[in-house]
């Protein structure tokens, strides 16, 4: 059922096609910046970025038309993509034998057949809620492995929290959670027993429920499932809660948490049979910036090098919130690398704050169409007016930070268009100075890095023409300012002073200006300073004040 990967030049369309009674399920999609001028197909060494949000194959049609938009990629030095690369499967819609179609709520009865379809009660036209959690197990022989597709899910709740409605798939390594509206190709399930849990509390006339297809095939010779016979237990769903930290507990707090900013880019590499758990602090979320499978010439698990290895960028395995676990069993086939098996999986990620102070104005757009200024001193959280409800608007905000800095803009929730990535009626757009064309977004419901600016100023346009878009909340962004990297290739270069010679003689500490004593005492605004090697700084407080050092750290450019 895996089909030949498809490539399309930017600003053109491709058609993903299956035979009758099959449906298109996209496994991965990537934007690519080609090293070879004029190329519209992936070659090793290309800069690639995840493009799953550009895919809108949400019906049971035998074909799906995908438009390869021209998009500026912050992961590729803000260059525009040359092509879109898509890998997909064709999966059965129904069974000729009714005995091969199973009810997920028939608790206590294991499924042992080689293939079949699992549905929720009343799917698709007689949608029903459940009074309790449904459980159904699939038994997999020890010499076999299972492939599973979520070919249709349309239930309530929003991606990320899944508080009232959910589908869990549980194996001996990890748990996959989905809700709302999605179609998904599970990457790998490592267990002799797979548990599927289904629970829906929300009722709405257009909901359909759930449909899955599975098949059990011979276990590949290179398969490495370390716990295939492990005991599998069901997941007890718990709503998102705010964690209270015991005051007497002493822990080592990362510097970025003390500063209240995003972490540096962190990474890990998994060879065959290895796993890694990402755990961000409280009130932080996981942003997976890169998810790469690599094929080495030697066939050995070497350190990741995109210039030497054939690599394929895919969407993250699942939606992470505060934590998640990655496991690479060592059997991922990469069609763009001659159908070879990936030697390793490489992941870049950050932990970003999700509960910072708001910087967005709580006012309507100016009637004269003028831009609304927003100053980014260090960081801040933007919420669209009336969030989490849509309101008809057409505003342009002027984001500005300190000279010599850029802004990284992360999506906490971009839900504007009812899960449809056709950004015509509702969207946000980031436009650099001197450009008439910007980068559009309308659906990004998992934490992600949306955009990195070229300079310290940027136009941010927010447009809502259809305020009745289904299950759409608006926009919530986390924006952070940082010093412009020396190798930043877009925008105007920052004017810098000549390099300072390191002193070899004692220096004189400068004296701060005299501060007037104050009759009304209150905490002063936070002061931040960068001190180059070999330099010093001196500060004075008014009479009756004292210093409180919030944080300090060394930095390497």
From TrEMBL:
Domain of life: Eukaryota
Annotated S-S bridges: 162-179
Gene3D superfamilies linked: 2.60.120.740, Spermadhesin, CUB domain
Pfam families: CUB
Keywords (A to Z) from UniProt: Disulfide bond
Segments forming domain CUB: 105-217, 337-482
Protein name: CUB domain-containing protein
């Amino acid at each position: 059922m895996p089909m030949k990967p498809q490539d399309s030049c930017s600003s053109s369309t491709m058609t993903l096609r299956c035979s009758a009674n099959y449906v298109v399920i996209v496994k991965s999609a990537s934007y690519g910046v080609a090293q070879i001028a004029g190329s519209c197909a992936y070659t090793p060494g290309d800069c690639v970025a995840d493009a799953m949000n550009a895919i809108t194959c949400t019906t049971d049609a035998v074909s799906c038309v995908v438009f390869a938009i021209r998009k500026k990629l912050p992961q590729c030095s803000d260059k525009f993509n040359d092509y879109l690369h898509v890998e997909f499967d064709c999966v059965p819609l129904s069974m000729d034998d009714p005995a091969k179609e199973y009810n997920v709520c028939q608790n206590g009865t294991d499924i042992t057949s080689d293939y079949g379809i699992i549905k929720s009660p009343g799917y698709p036209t007689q949608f029903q809620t459940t009074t309790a959690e449904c459980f159904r197990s699939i038994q997999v022989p020890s010499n076999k492995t299972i492939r599973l597709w979520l070919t249709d899910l349309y239930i309530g709740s929003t991606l990320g929290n899944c508080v009232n409605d959910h589908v869990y798939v549980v194996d001996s390594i990890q748990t996959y959670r989905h809700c709302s509206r999605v179609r998904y190709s599970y990457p790998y399930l490592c267990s002799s027993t797979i548990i599927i849990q289904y629970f829906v509390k929300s009722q709405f006339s257009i909901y359909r429920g759930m449909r899955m297809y599975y098949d059990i095939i011979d276990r590949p010779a290179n398969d490495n499932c370390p716990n295939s016979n492990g005991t599998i237990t069901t997941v007890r769903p718990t709503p998102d809660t705010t964690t209270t930290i015991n005051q007497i507990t002493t822990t080592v707090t990362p510097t970025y948490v003390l500063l209240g900013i995003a972490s540096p880019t962190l990474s890990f590499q998994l060879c065959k049979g290895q796993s890694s758990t990402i755990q961000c602090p409280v009130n932080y979320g996981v942003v997976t910036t890169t998810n790469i499978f690599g094929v080495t010439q030697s066939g050995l698990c070497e350190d990741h090098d995109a210039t030497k290895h054939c690599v394929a960028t895919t969407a993250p395995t699942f939606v992470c919130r505060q934590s998640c676990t990655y496991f690479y069993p060592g059997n991922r086939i990469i069609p763009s690398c001659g159908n070879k098996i990936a030697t390793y999986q490489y992941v870049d990620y950050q932990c970003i704050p999700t509960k910072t102070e708001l910087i967005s104005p709580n006012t309507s757009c100016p009637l004269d169409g003028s831009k609304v200024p927003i100053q980014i001193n260090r960081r801040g959280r933007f919420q669209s007016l009336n969030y989490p409800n849509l309101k008809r608007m057409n505003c342009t905000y002027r984001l500005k930070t300190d000279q010599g800095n850029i802004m990284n803009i992360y999506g906490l929730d971009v839900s504007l268009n009812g899960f449809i990535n056709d950004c015509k009626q509702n969207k946000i757009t980031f436009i650099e100075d001197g450009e008439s064309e910007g980068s559009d977004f309308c659906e990004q419901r998992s934490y992600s890095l949306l955009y990195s600016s070229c300079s310290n100023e940027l136009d941010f346009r927010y447009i809502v023409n259809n305020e009745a878009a289904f299950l759409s909340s608006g926009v919530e962004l986390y924006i952070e300012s940082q010093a412009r990297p020396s190798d930043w290739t877009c925008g105007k270069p920052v004017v810098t002073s000549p390099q300072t010679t390191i002193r070899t003689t004692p220096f004189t500490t400068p004296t701060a200006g005299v501060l007037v004593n104050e009759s009304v005492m209150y905490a002063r605004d936070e002061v931040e300073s960068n001190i180059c090697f070999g330099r010093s700084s001196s500060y004075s407080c008014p009479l009756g004040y004292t210093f409180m050092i919030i944080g300090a750290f060394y930095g390497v450019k």
